[in-house]
Here is the input.
Amino acid sequence: MKMDLQLKDLFEGFRDPRVIRSLKSQIEQKAQKLDKKLYVMEVCGGHTHSIMKYGLGQILPENIEFVHGPGCPVCVMPKERIDQAIDLARMEDTILVTLGDMIRVPGSKYSLAQVRAQGADVRALYTPLDALKIAKENPEKNVVFFAIGFETTTPMSAALMEQLTQSGVQNLFLHINHVLVPPPIEAIMDSGDAKVNAFIAPSHVSVITGAKIYKPLSKRYGTPIVVAGFEPVDILESISMLADMALQNSDDTAIQYSRFVSDEGNLKAQKMIEKYMQTREHFRWRGLGDIPQSALKLRPEYARYDAEVRFAEHLSDTPVDDHKQCICGDILKARAKPFDCKVFGKACTPGTPLGSCMVSSEGACNAYFRFGNLTTEGQR
Amino acid sequence: MCLSIPSKVTEIDEHNNAVVDTMGVQRRVSLDLISEPVKVGEYVLIHVGYAMSKIDEEDAMESLKVYRELIEKMEELEVQEQRE
Ligand code: SF4
Here is the structure.
């Protein structure tokens, strides 16, 4: 019998509590055979959010544990980059536009929301394309798009560049902060003291990049990697796959989220990025420090649209570190949990984040703060 | 931030824009980042105003089928346990 796929199946079918229970017992059986504990890093903040929201950490057996990774683009943005957004927003006759999540995150002194309250014109966008519309509607002003995000969001900035270069619009500039997923994984693993020995790889980054970007990582570190969807059933099925792979000592990359992810990914989007952007030699990550070749910038041919070039004299560039109590670095290496931080929930809360993992709902500390009281992990 | 939402295409215009339905919410999105042809009635994943990929419907149906079988197996086991 052929059944038609309904939109609601794409949500409900992957959240069904009965499937979750069944996968849970599958995982328990496999876990009994494991000879070492699995520390599974979920690289992406979207996964962190789902795991905490559905309490998936609590239903796993003792010898499988989630480690919350660096994949939250808002969290990894160092304060000096936010300071630059503020410098831009404060220029005369300027409108600063960005995607919503960034606006409340504090830089060294202020957030964009605060400078907006002081009179700067800061606007949240639904889509990067609206930046072009705003530029056309305000020809007497400079419009700067503060672009953030991993590989998921980078092609949309590239598509904006494509339209911008064809439009003849002269008053729109991009401040590019796009970051890449593999380099921070390498930084964490190369530090030598990370306990991580399996990964679930991001859902929507992988839709663009394809699963191929993880293959060198699984080989290099001898760990299995599964590209997982965001729904709870997706995540548990991926854990079950990882358990199988660990039992076979696999160092491969597999795809659970195959309804959207292929090995190759979205080649058109990849080409679009390649056309307008190139890797930066260095980028400082909040919580992880400087990582070579870990972020993108506009190619020199497009310097005319590059806010970092055009407004260089307005931009401060003093590195600003997180609070010295902050242990986000250890959390990323599975050496600590948010509850181990002395200031967690006290001086450091989502309203007053002292460190990177507290700044957005995708960060580990933030997710623990919001969902932590529903879990037992606090007592562990 | 990287969350994207499966949506159903309900209209496509001549500028390569589509109207999609996300569980009752209508949105206008660009199809500029998709290379394969998209038709009304198909499912796409949308992210900040762009469709970023089409769903592999067969693959999704296959997963859902496997999950239904899991449920059936589990329910059978539970009935057996109750009998014992
Ligand atoms: S609670 Fe705050 S200061 Fe502590 S590790 Fe988390 S983000 Fe850093």
Observations:
- Chain A touches chain B through 58 residues (CB under 8 Å).
